[in-house]
Structures are given as structure tokens and as C-alpha cells.
Sequence to fold (908 residues):
Amino acid sequence: MAGGTTLRESIKEMKRLKNEPLLLVAIVLIILLVGYFTIWPVIKVISVPQASDYAQLFAKRRWISALKNSLFMTVVSTLSCTAIAFLFAYVVSRLNVPCKGLFRFVALLPIVSPPFIVALSYILLFGIQGIITKGLLGLHVDIYGKFGLWIVQTVTFFPYAYSVILGVIQKISPNLEYAAYNMGATRWQVFRDVFWPLCRPGVAGGALIAAVNVLCDFGNPMMIGGDLALLPTEAYMQISGWYDMNTAAVLASALLVPALAIFVINRFWVGKRSYVTITGKEISLTPLKPPAWVKWGLFSLTMLVSLFVLLVYGSLALGAFTKAWGYDWSLTLNNMRYVLNKGGQIWNSIRFGLLASLGASLLAMVLAYIVQKKQVGVNRLLDFLAILPGAIPGIFLGIGFVMAFNEPPMELTGTAAIMVLALLFWNIPTCYSACTAGLQQIGASVEDAALNLGASSFVSFRDVILPLLKGPFMSGFVLSFLRSVTCLSVVIFLYAPNTIVGTISIMGLVETGQWGSAAAFTVTLISIAFTVLKVSQVVLRRQGIRLEL
Amino acid sequence: MENFIEFRNVTKRFDDFVALDNVSLSIPRGSFVTLLGPSGCGKTTLLRQLAGFAEPEEGDILIEGRRMNGLPPYKRNTPLVFQEYALFPHMTVYENISYGLKLQKAPKEEMDRRVAEMLEMFNLTGLEKRFPKQLSGGQQQRVAFARALIMGQKILLLDEPLSNLDAKLRVEVRTELRQLQQRLQITAIYVTHDQDEALSMSDIIAVMRKGRIEQLGTPWDIYFRPVSRFVADFVGTVNFLPCVVEKKEGKSLTVRYHQQTLTFDTEVDLRPGEPCTVVVRPECMTVRPEHAGEGQLVGEIQNYSFLGRYIRYWIRCNDQTLIVDDSNPGLTGAISGRVRLSLDLPKLHVLKDVGNAPD
Fold:
């Protein structure tokens, strides 16, 4: 285990590595790789601007408002995300209501979609040419700005909080609630005094996950933010509009600070406050039933949100097959033909996604194994390196790669390699946490048992650890692939004409108002993502492996 | 008997915590040795040093005179049965049991034959295609034994292998395990915190405390001749009578306990006037109603608990409460009121108080 060791003990452990050259080489390689591809870009971004550049941040009114707006949007969107996430998690895990499958589906959809698709659909629904605003109500409203962004971010990011909160709620034993009920508490008191306090760490954790996603969100503000100045979009404008690397770096650094803060709070504060212990026991007890009016009230709310999400995706599908959104509602395949013509970009998305997730999951698996099962004296450093990319906003990592790898020895600008590498290291935390969870499930002595029976370290890894990690490995791989295919922020600075991926095309189409083609492109990407997800679920289930997302 | 396994002055520290403090232990071939002690006493650490999962900072570990230090676990041939069995969840019963042979690249026919032997021996025939999670706790445990024994090593390490079984099965397996060890003439090292397991199976028990071996001896020694209050208290239930030595003539010792003198034989070196503690097991006293006469001590019953095969009494005697077991309960219920206690003098044991303070 990492932690709890003194320096002396660490040094002793490091000395022992002399006897395991393979392990030593692996560790040195990992530190060099992760250091070069995540720490070095971060250092580059922070160190290139001068002090005077940083001073600009607090002098120029546009930057001050970008900072304020970013924080403001983070707070409001996080609040609404968390509320909806809690509602969904509670309804799905604690209430006996119909349509739970639908709710689960709705809470999964945004995770496997490109981050900006909600914005795109929102425009299709309520924009100037919107089917509801213009088509049904005949209104002419301006939806660009804070309010629209708030709605869009809420729908986009509540699923992230939902999965965290659900995980915690499912582990709270209904027995605790029965115990309080038994001692004379009313159902409301049970909720207030027992259930809610037990949920709190999960809710806090979910809120922080949502917060960091909202803060670093680039796609939605790009499409629906309008004039609203936000740190990620402003940083992008500096580069795409003015080729001003220094200012972009300053803005990205300003984004890094709160992102790191949220990350640290989540990891070291919320993580320690979890009361829920993992016993591995399935909880089969029926939970305490709330009064009927509460139950159906919550159900209706959940249904309302779900219908809205479905509307969002429905309009997207419709948009993909509509001739000219807002003017000519007749159906057509033209948009799809357009996508077919751009097949190379879709292929880029898939190709880069596969390579990056393969690399990320392999590297992360070795990392997780060493951190969890070996005492090498640098366990904490390795753990830190593995989770660090999760704290870096995508936009920051993108700028970092541009700045770090446009000069010898690594001149990668414009290559496919830079796209793959950026996505690879951006995905390491995803795969790492999947593998870590998997490894923690493997009893401490299972590997010892193999050694005891005569298997060397390598053989026991091959015979015992690898087969048992198949599930977590595949979960990490599939999730990384979905993230890579739908990623915009990391790659927006890195592409060249021949390495354009789907998401970048979509952004371009939205910017020029080609809604139909944008929708068709998006539908194609989501279909690919869902197909990959479903196929791998089916294939893996046949081998008895459950895919955890 | 020659020494099969030897620990020589083994010391192991975890940071500032001394897990093993200069432990020396010799284990004769074919014996069943139990490391007994509370959690954190170092018993599992000692076992893991032998299996090679940890290395001692100081001292040597020898098997058949060969120094094991620095040898990785997979070269030691020290099969271990783990507390939670550590069966490979992704392998069938057959694959689990044959894994060690597979690593040695044994031919298929030999593997089949030896696995069949093991399945037969452990009553697992027919289950070879099952996965561990499809087995009961007892079956899983037998697979763990089969996996450890299939290589035919003459040594077997056991780390609390019975602690996950239910109480009744535990007692059954105890006997089977001891018979198996004797039949196969295996040298077994058994780690447990359960005194019943230790007493019922072992040739030798090493009672451990704070990284040291507090007492090494046969189950009889450990139970009736504990060297310290700790051992006496940890193994079984015990009464401590604070006494003062009256006289010591040869082996014969006379001590005063309140108004009563007690005379019995002991090897312990004591001088007249020296304070000491007499150790009495609950079953080494007989309780009778006061009017029945007989018995050195007088007391009053405070409480009792009927356990079927015996009644346990808590009896106020002088200024302490003594625990006394009546192993032949009457049909009509427990005794009450004032009673007389007679002590089985040959079974009394004495501890020096000097340097052996109660804790």
C-alpha cells in the first residue's frame, strides 16, 4: 500500500529493487514517460509567460470577468447538477417505481456523448431557428449566455455526479434506516438523521466531480456561451484568433488553480470522510418506503428531467435528417452523405481513440499493479503521477502539448502522434482508477499463494493478476475510448488538416451554422460510441466479465 | 529428532514497531508446532519469514540446515494454507490444485493422477470443474489444503486456516488435520490465536507475545505449568491467588493464602517470605455446599452459568472472585449460598511475583 512509510523504509524498499531489474526498469520508464508527457507540459505552460503577463490577468477587465464568470458558472451548474444527480440516484436506488431502466439510460447518455451535444440540441430546440421557439411558439429569443449555458451544463454533467452518489447510496445498508425507525424516528427523521448524513460524502464527491467538469468545460460554452467570457474559451480565442500563446497560457494557468483545488479537496478531504465501508455483501433488504406523495413527486421530477434529455437527443436525431433546420423541415439523407464524405475524420477519431486507450490502459495497469502490490519506496509518487492528469483541464493539457512538443527533441506539432499521446495521458487516471479498484478486489494473499506454489513474480502476474484484471482493464479501455472519441478540449489545439477528428469538425460546423451536418456528425459519433459500448458489454458478458463505467 | 526448521535470532522491525525480537526456535522433523498468541504478537510475521514473503533484518532461517535468507518465496518449497484460502477465483478446482505441478511442467497424466489422489483424500471428487465461488466454505478450505499438499513437500505452513469455518466444522477439521499430518509425516507449523486448536493439535506450542516467544512447551506444560501470568491467562481460564511463601523444602512448597496454607510440589525457586501467585484452573477446584464439610476455602456463590457439560460458578472468596467449574452438574440445578472449595493440590502451579507483575 502507498503511504504510512517513512523515508528510511522507502530507501530500504528502493534498495531491494536491485534484485528485481524488470520492476526497476518499469518504474524508471513510467516516471520518465509520465513526467515528460504530463509534468513537462504543465511546467511549460506555467513558466513561459512573464510576471507581467500574469499581472494582466488582474488588470484587464475581460480576464477578470472571465475568471468571475467561470467560477460563477461552476457554482450554479454544480448546484443544479448535484441536486438532479441526487434525485436520480435516490429514485433509482431507493424507490420502487417504474421506468428505472429509462432513468439509468438517461443518466448514461451524456457520458458517452461528445460534451457539446447538449448545447447543439439546445440550439436546435430553442435557438433562433429552434423547433420550439420558432417553429411552435413563433418566438425570437436570444438563448446564448449564462442561462442557456446553465441548463446545458446541468444536463451534460449531472450524470458524472450521479454515478458517484449512486455508488455511495447503494452501499448504505437499509438496516441502519430500520434501526432508526425502530427506535422511534419518523420517516423524515430517518432521512434527515441517518440517510442524509451517510450520503453526504458521496454527494460532496459527486458535486466536486461535476464542478471540475463544469469548470473545464470547453465545448458547451464555445457553442452557447455567446459573448460570455470564460477562461477555457478565452484561452482558445487567444490562440485561434490572436496566436497569443502567452496570454492563453496565463488564462489556462488561472483555470488550473481552481481545478487543482477541487481535485485536492475531493481526493484528500472527501475521500477520508466516507463512512461507507465496502463489505462486499449485497444489500438485498427492501429500503424503507417514503410516503406515496413523496415517492410519486420525486418520480415525476425525474421523469420530467428524463423527458427533457430525451428531447435533446431526439432533436439531434431529427436534425441529422432534416434538410434545413428552421426553414425546410423535410427529411433528407444529405447530412449523412456529408458525414460519409468526411469519413476520414471519423476514422481519425476511432483510430486515435483506440491507440490512445490501448496505451493508456496498458500503462495504467502496470502502474496500478506496482502501486497496489509492490513496496518500491516511490508508491506515493507513482500514485500521484497516475492521477495527476485528472486534475489538469483538457484545454490546459492541449496548450501544454503545443508548447512542450513543438521543438526538438520532440517536434510533434501537426502529427497524429501528438493527438494520440495527448489523449493517452489524458486518459491514464480513468484506466488507473479502474485497475486500482480491480486490484483491491483481489485478496492480498492470492498472489502470495502463487509465489508460494512456485510461480515467480512475473509468472504470478501473468497467471493470476492479468486474468483477474481483464474486467477492470476492459472497463478502463472502453471508457477511455468513449472519452477520446468525444473529446474536444484536448485536441482542439493539436490538430492539423490531416488529423482532424469528428469533434473538431462538429465545432466548425456549429460555428458556421450548419446545424444539419453537425447533428448528423454527432449522431454518427454517438452511434459509434454506443455500438462499441454495447458490443464490448455483450462480448465480455459471455466471458463472465461485467463492464463497469 | 533432528531439527528440520530453525529460526536463529530472527529480528524484524516495521518502522519503530518490533514485530520479531530476537526469536530463536527449533522445529523437529515430523512435529506439529503451533505459534499461539494474540494479534500483533508476531506469529504470522514469523510464518511469513519462513515462506519468504518477508525478510528478517537480523538472524537466519534454516530448513534442513540450508540457509533460506534471500531466497524468493517461489524457490522455498514451503506450501502455505492461507487464512482466507487465497484460491485463484478464475481457476477451477482442478486448475487450483494442479497449479504447482503445472509450474513444474509435470506431464498431463501425472497431473491428472495426483489431482485425483488429492480430490479423493479431501473428499472433493466430482467438484474439479467448479470455481471456488461455487463451493461451500468447507470445500474451499479443503481445496486450499489439497493445493498445498499436492507437491508432496514434507512441510506445511498454516495461517489460521480454520478461522473462517463455523464452530462445529472447525472442531471436526481439527482432528482430521492432525491425523493427516501424522499419516503423511509432515512437519507442520500452525499459526492461531485459538487456544483450543493449539492444545488439541500440537506437539509443541510456542506462546508468543510482543515479538518474543514467551513459552515453548508441550500443551501440558503450557496449560498446567505456564511461565507467566500472560501465558496462564491467554491459554484457558485461570484464577490467580496472591500468596506468601511459608517454607520450601526440596520440591515441596508451602504458601499462605489468607488464613489457609497450601502445600504442593514445584520446581520454581522461591524463598520464605517471598510473595508469589498460585495459579489454579477452574476445573482444579471442587465446589460443595458448606455443610458438606471438606475443602480448604470457604466462599459464597455470586453467579453461575449452565453450559451443559459443566456449570461455571463465580464464587466470592476472601477479597476476590474465583471461577470454578463443576464438570458434573446435578440434575436439579446449581448450588447456591455458602460453599466450600477443595483444591486439587498436585495441579497447583506457582509464579514468582518478582519481575512478573500483572498487566
